[in-house]
# Entry
Amino acid sequence: MSNYVKLYKRLSKFPAGTSIFNIALSRKSPYVSQLKPKVSELRQGYAQIDIAKRKALHNHLGTIDSNALFTLSQLTMGLSIETAIPKNRRWIPVGANVEYVKLAQTAVTATCDCTDLDFGQDNIEVSVTVKDTNGEPVQRAVIQLNVSAK
# Structure
């Protein structure tokens, strides 16, 4: 079990535990702190992260900006990968294909499942889906990773 999953499980037992985890995650990756991400589920190879619809993330249309959505996708993928990849392997993103399905007019939730990935390969693709509060996709991303030995 990864350190992230252990810490999340340990902190989740306390009233403000998940908030502490979310603050720590934002400090680990300061760029994403602007999203104010909230990890709603984390287990080995799987991450689910929510962000609220806030004015600070709006574009000129009053919806969540596409850059914020992609940053959320990268964060969700990264946390999911970190909980799944073997300790003797490392990863780096090398590309992405992003499809913006519809405007994000509500809070959104990103999910990424890496439980079935083959980390023995040098190049893998990881899918992330971002959905609105109605459960409808607003963004789909496929992020290409280069995986190598440490």
